[in-house]
Design goal:
- The protein is an alpha/beta fold.
- The chain has one domain: Rossmann fold (3-Layer(aba) Sandwich).
- Helix content is 24%, strand content 24%.
- It is built from 4 helices and 7 strands, in the order E-H-E-H-E-E-H-H-E-E-E.
- Strand 6 and strand 7 form a beta hairpin.
- Helix 1 packs across helix 2.
- The chain starts with a strand and ends in an 8-residue tail after the last strand.
- The mean pLDDT is 94.
- Bound molecules: adenosine-5'-diphosphate and magnesium ion (MG).
- Magnesium ion binds next to helix 2.
- The site of magnesium ion (MG) has 5 residues, from helix 2.
């Protein structure tokens, strides 16, 4: 699936749409340059899951957990990770292989621990099409009706 958005609100809305459909055990890998809209997307996604509180990138902790939605959400931002062993230290396996949903900003930095079956979301700018233009590609979503 590919979507074009032209405002943060539209990216939020796409996140919301996917958050409403999200199922237990899924891992969403979110990649794209700094300032492209990964956190905006995540905020929409969290809203779609029924999480009301503010959602921001977890700066000092790598992962932030939200329990108040339809399913637990583990929001990772691994941008500042030094070594993948830091993921072991925070017990990532309980999140990846649990009953919640993982959403990982900058997943490209931890390829060695990503399971094979993930949902990939890539956000790209194209300045020729305007400052707020984003192309968002989503790969690996289950078909409608499929578990
Ligand atoms: P990231 O988490 O990828 O570093 P953020 O989500 O924190 O990026 O920030 C994205 C910035 O880009 C915000 O300031 C937002 O207002 C702006 N923006 C402009 N156009 C868009 C768009 N189409 N989608 C998402 N964000 C946009
Ligand atoms: Mg971010």
């Amino acid at each position: 699936m590919e979507r074009i958005t032209n405002s943060p609100e539209e990216t939020f809305a796409l996140g919301q749409e996917l958050g409403r459909q999200a199922a237990a055990g899924q891992i969403y890998c979110l990649d794209g340059d700094l300032g492209v809209g990964k956190t905006v997307f995540t905020q929409g996604f969290a809203d779609g899951l029924g999480i009301e509180g503010p959602v921001n990138s977890p700066t000092f902790t790598i992962v932030q957990q939200y329990e108040e939605g339809r399913l637990p959400l583990y929001h990772f931002d691994v941008y500042r990770i030094g070594d993948v062993s830091e993921m072991d230290e925070i017990g990532y396996e309980d999140c990846f292989y649990g009953e919640g949903i993982c959403l990982i900003e900058w997943s490209q930095l931890i390829p060695e621990i990503l399971p094979e079956k993930v949902i990939r979301i890539r956000i790209e700018k194209n300045l020729e099409r305007g400052f707020d233009y984003r192309r968002i590609t989503v790969e690996g979503l289950p078909e409608q009706g499929e578990a």
